[in-house]
Write a structure and sequence with these properties.
The chain is an alpha+beta fold and 437 residues long.
């Protein structure tokens, strides 16, 4: 598993670095189409959602196509949109080959990589004339990860935040009043909650071996990823290693379990809803999965990520972008779809069906969504956590850098590499990538 993951990251780093020297590489020759119900404009859309989420997306697109007979959106699943995933690799290759889709679902951290190549269409003009996707319409914290160097290139679509799930039934049995608010409390609670042996053992905590939480640990320690000029890695300090030291110690003393490989995230979520762990790091987008699988087996809740020196979380999920060089009429049709799919009614329905955050203020304040929250209080936590979002550094090299961070986490958890040493190696790799060495 780890070998394949490293090869995947290596391909992303090499391809994205080469594309930084190319401008206007998203263009594709095409005549300007004329729209009519008999001859609708076709908008191709590369997405990265599979399973039930993919079904929900296709249902939304079918509704749009029925209500907009002049436009036909055709979405194809190109593999996971997540960092280093197949959709990103295919999109980088398509840009290099001058054969891109019209719309793509782009992981939020990857925006600088793609925007810096000239492959994304600036959306400033569209937004100025928008009736619903203006900055003032969006939920707090949604705008930063849609921009690069002050220009907006994306519209938030499926957005999430890291959260902690906790088993209320186990907490009550252990006489713990509520979820931990600090990382020191996480360790204390995990010691109390861990019990049993062998296959019947229940672990107090399940951290995720996933670079998203590298951002949490670094920022919460008051540290930064890169220098202000984006030319040097700064995440290799003793303070930045503190929370990694804590989770490694918990892993070694048996109060935490960490799953490796490409299936690590799914196994972590499953360990929680099957009652094998009392707390786990996860995404707010997993609320629906947990709700379905826990059923009536036990009571559970969602908490904000614990606080260290500060409370800080990264954005998660993806934006929708329009690729540059497509015909004006196709771009306008693509924008019509993007406005529709992120409008209050649609983003509210999408949130209720999937667990992703609604991206529009009007959706959150609507009577229908407020009524939904009363029945599904777990969904409130991510909305409360939004104000603690930190923007990732807007470096076109960041896609490669967090690949090195992932390798560092693998080394900490599964190769007994001291956290600070692993972070220093990743920082050296990041510096070499930035400098082009």
């Amino acid at each position: 598993m780890h070998t394949n993951k490293k090869r995947q990251w290596a391909g992303i780093i090499v391809t994205s670095t080469l594309l930084l020297t190319v401008t206007g590489c998203g263009t594709k020759a095409s005549t300007t189409p004329t729209a009519s119900p008999a001859h609708p404009i076709t908008v191709t859309f590369w997405d990265g959602l599979s399973g039930p989420l993919g079904v929900d997306l296709q249902n939304m697109i079918q509704t749009f196509n029925k209500t907009h007979p002049d436009i036909r959106v055709v979405a194809t699943y190109e593999g996971s949109y997540t960092g280093g995933g197949p959709e990103q690799q295919k999109l980088l290759a398509a840009i290099a080959a001058h054969s891109v889709p019209d719309i793509a679902q782009l992981e939020v951290h990857s925006m600088p990589v793609f925007a810096s190549t000239g492959a994304l269409m600036p959306l400033t003009t569209f937004i100025q004339h928008s009736t619903g996707d203006r900055p003032s319409d969006l939920l707090s914290g949604m705008l930063e990860s849609t921009q690069y160097q002050g220009v907006t290139y994306g519209v938030p679509f499926n957005r999430s935040l890291p959260v902690m799930f906790y088993n209320k039934t186990m907490f009550q049995a252990a006489h713990l009043s509520g979820p931990p608010n600090t990382w020191a409390q996480v360790r204390q609670d995990a010691q109390v909650l861990t019990h049993g042996n062998g296959t019947s053992k229940v672990y107090g905590f399940a951290p995720l071996d996933q670079w998203w939480f590298w951002e949490v640990y670094t920022w919460e320690a008051g540290q930064h990823m890169l220098s202000p000029n984006l030319q040097k890695a700064t995440f290799d300090t003793p303070a930045a290693a503190d929370l990694f030291d804590l989770t490694v110690q918990m892993q070694h003393d048996g109060t935490a379990v960490i799953f490796s490989g490409a299936d690590g995230w799914g196994l972590t979520t499953a360990s929680f809803y099957s009652g094998k762990v009392a707390m786990d790091e996860d995404s707010s987008a997993s609320i629906g999965i947990v709700t379905k699988n826990v059923g009536n087996k036990f009571q559970w809740g969602v908490a904000m990520m614990p606080k260290d020196l500060v409370r800080a979380v990264p954005p998660g999920g993806a934006n929708l972008v329009i690729m540059s060089g497509i015909p004006k009429a196709t771009a306008q049709a693509a924008w019509t779809f993007m406005q529709w799919v992120t409008a209050p009614a649609q983003t509210r329905t999408w949130s209720e069906e999937t667990g992703y955050l609604p991206v529009q203020k009007a959706a959150v304040t609507s009577a229908a969504y407020q009524a939904y929250l009363e029945v599904h209080p777990a969904e409130k936590v991510a909305l409360q956590e939004v104000k603690y979002q930190h923007a990732p550094p807007p470096s076109p090299h960041y896609l490669g850098i967090y690949g090195y961070a992932q390798d560092a986490m693998d080394a900490m958890y599964f190769a007994n590499t001291p956290p600070l040493a692993a972070l220093k190696k990743a920082a050296q790799q990041a510096d070499a990538l930035i400098s082009g060495q």
